[in-house]
Design a protein that fits this description.
Layout (H helix, E strand, L loop, with lengths): L1 H32 L3 H23 L6 H13 L3 E7 L4 H14 L6 E5 L2 E8 L2 E8 L4 E6 L3 H8 L4 E4 L11 H9 L4 H4 L6 E4 L8 E4 L8 E8 L4 E8 L2 E8 L3 E3 L2
Parallel strand pairs: 3-7
Antiparallel strand pairs: 1-5, 1-6, 2-5, 3-4, 8-9, 8-12, 9-10, 10-11
Helix pairs in contact: 3-6
Length: about 260
């Protein structure tokens, strides 16, 4: 009997030891079942990183805001050289720009002449009742040049084909102010900078030329024939000769009072 009890006690001890070993193994394996703290940390860091990547967007100045315009102004201020205005033959502004940019390179003047601009604007031309959206020179007969003024750079610009001179003193032209440059070039910038959704202005294209024969369709001279001898585009009027009682009489007529004879 004593041997039997001894065997039972030994078996009990073994079972208890086995239970403790199992518990120890479970306890040791517990961290494997839980989420990895390092992975959670990395995930949180990734989310924070994504949030950080989006943050700079909020730092960008709003279109047309004082900050956006000030950034544009500051970029102009930091650019080397000053802005000058040169005269050109009307209709040859883009040709002058191309000629001057070519001379800048061939004469190695890139360190003195930096930029040439022909300010443009979008308008809706009205001709013969038809509307057409086009881009045209905003300042006919003028071209803008950013440059360091020296005797050499002055000569390169002045002797460019199509250039008739500088605005200001012939030999000591005065540059535009920074405010003037910002006002002119800001209109050229995309909406993201200027903040303006530009609606093109409507302009009536002249459908008449000096020497044209027209019929007066309105006013006291209606139905009479006239010959145009002067056109004033600003006032939208023409001067012409109308035959009254067998004599040619000069009259002034608005564009909407006459119709071109076919």
């Amino acid at each position: 009997m004593s041997e039997t009890y001894g065997d039972l006690e030994e078996a009990t001890v073994l079972v208890e030891n086995d239970d403790e070993a199992v518990e120890a193994e479970v306890a040791a394996g517990a961290p494997e079942e839980d989420s990895d703290p390092a992975a959670e940390t990395d995930g949180e860091a990734g989310e924070a990183g994504e949030a950080g990547e989006e943050a700079p967007e909020g730092d960008q100045p709003a279109p047309g805001s004082p900050e956006a315009i000030e950034e544009f102004r500051e970029a102009l201020r930091r650019a080397p050289g000053e802005w000058y205005v040169i005269h050109s033959y009307a209709g040859y502004e883009n040709r002058v720009k191309q000629n001057l940019e070519t001379r800048m390179t061939t004469l190695n003047m890139e360190e003195f002449i930096f930029q040439v601009e022909v300010p443009m604007e979008e308008v809706v031309e009205i001709k013969g009742g038809q509307r057409k959206r086009v881009k045209r020179n905003k300042f006919p007969g003028y071209v803008l040049v950013r440059m360091d003024l020296t005797n050499e750079s002055w000569g390169v610009v002045r002797n460019t084909p199509g250039v008739t001179g500088f605005v200001g003193n012939a030999h000591e032209p005065y540059p535009l102010t920074l405010d003037e440059v910002v006002k002119i070039l800001l209109e050229e910038q995309p909406e993201e900078v200027s903040g303006k959704q530009k609606a093109p202005a409507e302009v009536k294209v002249l459908d008449f030329e000096v020497g044209d024969s027209v019929t007066v369709i309105d006013g006291p001279f209606a139905t009479l024939q006239a010959t145009i001898n002067e056109i004033n585009a600003d006032s939208q009027k023409v001067k012409g000769l109308v035959e009254i009682f067998g004599r040619e009489t000069p009259v002034e007529l608005s564009f909407n009072q006459i119709q071109k004879n076919s």
